[in-house]
């Protein structure tokens, strides 16, 4: 049994208040509005292939920068999630049936965008027998068939701890298996109530056990009421699971109904966490206010692969 503690007892003044205004962003978190021709072209390709992206659905602040370079993160299995996490802007409800043609459309869009590295994520599909693991595998296979030189990163849900789901995805041989913890364990009850912290740790560990060659990755957000020692413990838990790559970014409140931002963490604290994470043994660390799981994913993958080669003494 996993026991998750609610830190509202420690911070009663920080309890979620739906009527509270959205916090004003500090200067270091502001980005320019997306208006470039590259952004428009990427948007047109996504629309033409009838696809969803987490860039849009989650309101990512980096969408202008990424789409200008034709870097989009595909969100498969629809745009309706079976869970209602307090930090997430994706719609919650009863999803529709899976689209068997979606894997091909993702592959064709990947080719059209000329992606050398593609990131595929999804909504939670707790309504499905395997929570969508086979659909992930089908998307990976379609991309391999149409874009053989493209490296593939999957950002998966926890598959509701369903037997065989992780093995199904890993067997399709993605280059990176990513599953985000999102926050420290004491915040799960209020931030990520449908998930279990140690089940997510185990999922990451299991993916590496099944295929030791796969790169594993996870990320957390700061500004949700976590304490410094809790963040350091998350790092230790991830390293115990042999996770290679850690991302740390600032949580941004999508709307008044979502969890409030308890604190905007300054850039120097993110840099300090990066230094500590490298000291703990991560091959790659991306830690900044605007860091997101798929931001600069292609460049980061190249660095990740080089870091492993250097560690193993491969030239």
Care to describe what's here?
The protein is 37% helix and 13% strand. The strands form 2 sheets. Strands 1-2-5-6-7-8-9-10 form an 8-stranded mixed β-sheet, sandwiched between helices. The chain has a two-stranded parallel sheet with strand order 3-4. Strand 6 (151-155), helix 6 and strand 7 form a beta-alpha-beta unit. The protein has one domain (36-312): Aldolase class I (TIM Barrel, Alpha-Beta Barrel), CATH 3.20.20.70. The model is unreliable at 1-15 (pLDDT under 50). It has helices spanning 37-48, 54-57, 63-68, 102-113, 133-146, 165-171, 188-191, 197-210, 228-240, 267-279, 297-312, and strands at 52-53, 73-76, 80-81, 91-92, 117-122, 151-155, 176-178, 215-222, 245-250, 284-287.
Helix content: 25-40%
CATH superfamily: Aldolase class I
List unreliable stretches of 5+ residues: 1-15
Number of helices: 11
Strand content: 5-15%
Principal-axis shape: globular
- Order of strands, main sheet, comes to 1-2-5-6-7-8-9-10
**Which sheet architecture does the biggest sheet show?**
8 strands, mixed
Please tell me the CATH architecture by its name: Alpha-Beta Barrel
Average pLDDT figure? 86
CATH topology: TIM Barrel
Count of all domains? 1
According to DSSP, the number of beta strands is 10
Q: Oligomeric form of this entry? A: single chain
Order of helices and strands: HEHHEEEHEHEHEHHEHEHEH
